[in-house]
Amino acid sequence: MANLNEREKQISRGFHVSAVMLLIVLALVMLATLFIYTTMRDMYRHDLQSTEYINRIEAEINNININILKLEGGFPDKQDYLQNVGNSFQIINEQEAKWEKLGTKVGFTTAKRADILAKRYNQAKLYIKAYDEKLLLMQSYMPKLATGEMTGKDMMAFYKDMLDFYTQEVSPIQSTATEMIKAVNDINQLIGEDRLTSVAYNHGIIQDIVILLIIVSEIAVEAMRRRTIRRQRELEVQAHEIQVAGERLEHSKEKMFDIALTNILTGMKNRYALENDLADRLETDQFNIGVFDLDNFRAINDTYGYEFGDEFLATIGEMLNAEYSNVAEIYNITGNEFCFIFHDDVPDSQAQRISDKIRITMTTPIEISGVVAQCGASGSIYHYLPNDSLNVSSLLIKMDTTLHNAKRNGGNMVYTVNSL
Amino acid sequence: MRKKNKRFFSMLMAGTMALSFLTATGCSKEEPRKVAVIPMSTSADYWKTLEKGARDACDELGIEMTFEGPNDETDIDSQIQYVEKAINNKVDAIVISPCDYELVSAVLDKAGNSGIKVVTVNSDASSDAVLSNVATDNDCSGAIVAREAMKYANKDNSVIAMGHLQGNVVCEARIAEFVTTIQDANTETAPKLLDTVYCQNDIDDAKKTALNLINSHPELSVIYTTNELSTIGACQAVEEKGLKDKVSIIGFDSSEKEISYLRSGILKAFIAQSPYNMGYLGVRYADKAIDDDTLPYYVDTGAFLVTPDNIDEQTTQLILYPDKF
């Protein structure tokens, strides 16, 4: 039984542990999902801003170039163009500051990619600076442009010089700066793609964990189920065994009881059975009871031996049973003494008559193994009324006393207890 | 029994889903693009810098790169073999610095016909397969040098160009605009232009030629040399004569030796190209070509005049040592 409790405890502990584990893992999965979501959101914002700043820088470089080309082409409003160039560089500086503040490292970026991005950005920035410096050198041409004093051939030569300087020294730097800043954007985009892949990968892993968890818990539940069923079957088997054992015990108890209440020789109920049957009736019932005894039965034992005597008694018992069991309950209370409790439907007068018949039956000559023997018989009959006796013993003493009176007065008679 | 089956199928389904997720997350990578970068030679620092640029671009774009080429810049046959190899390897694009404008064209045509995108860097080829050329504009270099040369010479002086190899396309291109610019300059202030001389792309020959020029032209104030070896030879001549204040060398390319001559004042300036940017932009354009984007036919990566005044500036350092940034 202790073993069983231990096992039940084990099973319930198993359920608790798996429930707690499940909760923990679910919580972790939720946290991980939340983490991925927030990181993705930050990444998205970061990439959006980064792209915005870089695009603006690229646009401003183009803007500067357009203004410079207008200057080269001798368009009017030269100061406006210069002003525009200055403004554009101002904007570029602002965008650069914003970009640098944004930083390159946000979730799901490999350090290598971040380094590559930082390197390319740095080079792009330096080329933009170089472009600015070259344009400052170009401004040495500006005062002459501003005065507008030149004419004809001088003017032509001046513009040619300025154009040469632009194409030979400024333009390559401008195009390199543009290419570099485009490259920064490309890397940004690749990082974005990297991140998406990475997010998908991480998400996939979490999914895998969840699925594995489901499988494991399925298996665990299945194992628990089988274990519980097995346990239940064991219990059923045990209960059945207990029931069988109980039945057997009951059976042997009954048997023992039967044995205790039966006269071994005649197979009839004995004195204990009489006491058992009668005890409860003494206070409440009225009934007719008769006690009969073979007269001088000892002579038969002495003459033919105990075996013969036993056989003789058994035969008498059988006869009594055969003839009177329908009118009375018959007990073989001692060796040759029989007690009859008449059924309630047998009237008093009839009981009296039946008593005589019983006495006569008991005196029937009996043949055993070729030897015929006969004994006289006496009896006492008593019409019992409620509370006549305190117990069965005192009742029997009354009956026996009357019986012995009958024997003393010659035997072969039935005396009535009341008649005394 | 039915219940058992149901359970079994739910497990089976879960297992299949798990597997599909694992495969979906594990097998989503595409084949990387393959680009063959073929320089004129793999030995000089110049080409190693070009390789760095190409490598950086490949790293940024996730491209698989090979960098193979002849040992000698004149080994055209060997370079053609490398192009053949790239075609056989079914690369997506070839970035090449052709050893010869005409002789490498046939094999580049073949590459183009096999669907391989071709971008030339540093030098060009006549092939129609070339989608874009990323290089220093040699005309511009000559003009820039001419402008600088006139700072060291007046009408009483003379200037001269010493080409590294007569008839070489690059050499002649570098000289042509120098000559034109000096000739077109204001006749009142411009120095006299002497006839171009050549050395045999050899330091000793360059030194000898320079010494001859110095000896025979006492009014000579500027020698323009068109590559690294001719520049070093000319510097050795001026150093030997101790005439660094009288004869100014303006050279080409940016080797460590030249940089030290610049710092010692013998070399007044040199034109630095940007092999890093050539490699870098060459690969980027090749990548765009694979996407069938339209490319500029020609990109000038610039000729940067490096002088003792600007050599320590950040932007000059960026050109000379791109790897530091």
Assembly type of the chains comes to heterodimer
Coarse morphology of chain B: elongated
What spatial order of strands do you see in the largest sheet of chain A?
Answer: 2-3-1-6-7
> What spatial form of chain A do the alpha-carbon principal axes imply?
rod-shaped
Overall domain count of chain A: 2
The number of helices of chain A is 10
Distance between the termini of chain B: 72 Å
Could you tell me the number of beta strands of chain A? 7
Largest sheet of chain B: 7 strands, mixed
Q: Strand percentage of chain B, roughly? A: 15-25%
Question: Any chance you could write out the topology, listing elements then pairs?
Answer:
The complex is a heterodimer of chains A (420) and B (325).
Chain A: H1 2-72, H2 78-102, H3 111-138, H4 142-147, H5 152-261, H6 271-278, E1 287-295, H7 297-304, H8 306-324, E2 328-334, E3 337-342, H9 348-362, E4 366-368, E5 371-373, E6 376-384, H10 392-408, E7 414-416
Parallel strand pairs in A: 6-7
Antiparallel strand pairs in A: 1-3, 1-6, 2-3, 4-5
Chain B: H1 2-26, E1 34-38, H2 45-61, E2 64-67, H3 76-88, E3 93-96, H4 105-113, E4 117-121, E5 130-135, H5 138-149, E6 158-163, H6 169-184, E7 192-193, E8 197-198, H7 203-216, E9 220-225, H8 228-241, E10 248-252, H9 256-263, E11 267-272, H10 275-290, E12 298-300, E13 304-306, H11 314-320
Parallel strand pairs in B: 1-2, 1-3, 3-4, 4-5, 5-12, 6-7, 6-8, 6-9, 9-10, 10-11
Antiparallel strand pairs in B: 11-13
